[in-house]
From TrEMBL:
It is found in: Cytoplasm. The lineage of its organism: Bacteria, Pseudomonadati, Bacteroidota, Sphingobacteriia, Sphingobacteriales. It holds the Pfam family ADH_N. GO terms for molecular function: oxidoreductase activity; RNA binding; zinc ion binding. Belongs to the zinc-containing alcohol dehydrogenase family. Quinone oxidoreductase subfamily. Residues 16-334 form the Enoyl reductase (ER) domain. This is Zinc-type alcohol dehydrogenase-like protein. PANTHER family: QUINONE OXIDOREDUCTASE. InterPro entries: ADH-like_N, ADH_Zn_typ-1, ER, GroES-like_sf, NAD(P)-bd_dom_sf, Quin_OxRdtase/zeta-crystal_CS, Zinc-ADH_QOR/CCCR. GO terms for cellular component: cytoplasm. Its main location: cytoplasm.
Amino acid sequence: MKAIGFKTSLPIEEEESFIEFEIEKPTPTQRDILVKILAISVNPVDFKVRKGSAKDKNLEVPKIIGWDACGVIDRIGDDVRNFKVGDVVYYSGDLNRQGCYAEYQLIDERLMGHKPDNLSFAEAAAMPLTLLTAWEIIFDRIRIGERDKGKSILIIGGAGGVGSIAIQIAKKLAGLKVIATASRPDSKNWCLNYGADVVVDHRNLIDEVRQAGFEHVDYILDFVDVNQYWEAFVQLIKPQGHIGSISDPTNEVNLRQLKSKSASFHWELMFTRSMFQTEDMGEQGNILNRAKKLFEDGILKSTLNTVLEGFDVANIKEAHQLLESGKTIGKTVILF
């Protein structure tokens, strides 16, 4: 099968930052499923892994990354219970296994869901990683529930991939008052179109939030850089509030600053369940299947914004360049 990967970590402009090659098509066993991929989505984790996983190395076999895909089931392992050949599925997958920059991929059935019927292949491929991340941080980490309806939530990076779906989940499912950050007219409009009640400029965060009528907020979700905004978070979080983050801080976070408010801090990594084979690993498949109905009922909508047609090195590189610019809105998908 055709695959695209890299042997060494290079700037995306370099000719061999990605290379095309042939590799044997894998065979599924046990609960694994072989998926023929129809579309993939590119996320910031992709370029972070590309930049860091083969520094000062020259791998014998190119590394295949990518953790967002939609495809059709080609073969199944003997122990697969919930899927059959021909089913169309969407999933994010496992950071420790071969990624989706390939024509076929093996995925544990517990990590996948049936594709929403009303979404195209590209629209579905845009969703798994960001959907699971936003869902887990809201419901599994902070554990927002029915009793919390009407409370306020500040979402840092509202027009990004995770922010776009987090706005919808927080507004439509959790019933929260959503404040999202964005600085450009197009990104502000994007946040409003996806359900944000208020959009504020992250460059003057404390004043903007307070001018919008919020002295403090019940929840803060950081999808950008916890170090950059930490002092603002400390001031804006309500006593007994909750802060959640997915970012990778370069400096230590001073949690002692939250003690007087008895505020809580939560990390979220969508790959934790698959990396550690947790007892509830199958919850990711359950979330994707619950989301299938939410998409079909029009409660949630895909955050797809850019489609590149054709599975080739040029499109992989273009997608990485777009994400590395830090200015993308919504999701970028490559349609095979």
